[in-house]
Design brief:
This protein has about 170 residues and is mainly alpha-helical. The chain contains seven helices and three strands. The protein has two domains: about 80 residues, Winged helix-like DNA-binding domain superfamily/Winged helix DNA-binding domain (Arc Repressor Mutant, subunit A, Orthogonal Bundle), CATH 1.10.10.10; about 60 residues.
């Protein structure tokens, strides 16, 4: 399942915008319009969140006490900054996401593992996470400094991996 980052689609992972907005506001106070522009820059113009997703989120953050409106904003520009509560909320979100990520990637069966998870399974999740990280780094490298041989070589490694892992899940263990 891959996300298409085309403009205004709903393929963006749930909660993604919220955590991004919290992160941006933790760096400096911003307005809704500024948030939309920065998000567009960050995704290399592939995705600009719509006003219909940004403004309701900003109201929710304000109502929840996670942000406050700056009174000294220029006429007509409302900037928001993170409150102490908001900073705590951001930290909790990040913790939750990290704890969840390993389990989540393997799907529900890892999340509702009965009883304590075996050490080997936990180590596998860690390795899997490393693999994803390496994948993101490779994607960045290809985007910023494309080379055909790098792409070809990486594809061989990945195809090899897929084949081996698929074989593991198909074979009956004696």
């Amino acid at each position: 399942m891959h996300h298409h980052w085309s403009r205004g689609t709903s393929f963006v992972p749930k909660g993604y915008l919220r955590s991004q907005v919290l992160k941006l506001l933790s760096e400096k106070p911003m307005s809704g319009a500024e948030i939309m522009s920065v998000m567009e820059d960050k995704t290399s113009m592939r995705w600009r969140p719509s006003p219909g997703s940004v403004y309701p989120l900003l109201s929710w953050l304000l109502d929840s006490g996670y942000t406050r409106e700056l009174s000294d904003s220029e006429a007509g520009v409302r900037r928001y900054e993170l409150t102490e509560e908001g900073k705590k909320f951001l930290e909790e979100e990040e913790l939750r996401r990290d704890q969840h990520k390993g389990a989540h990637f393997f799907g529900p069966q890892f999340e509702d593992w009965e009883g304590p998870m075996p050490e080997e399974a936990r180590e596998l999740i860690d390795s899997w996470r490393q693999m994803k990280r390496a994948g993101f780094a490779l994607r960045r490298k290809l985007r910023d400094d494309y080379s055909e041989s790098l792409a070809t070589e990486a594809k061989k490694i990945v195809d090899d991996f897929v084949e081996k892992i698929s074989r593991l899940s198909e074979t009956e263990r004696a």
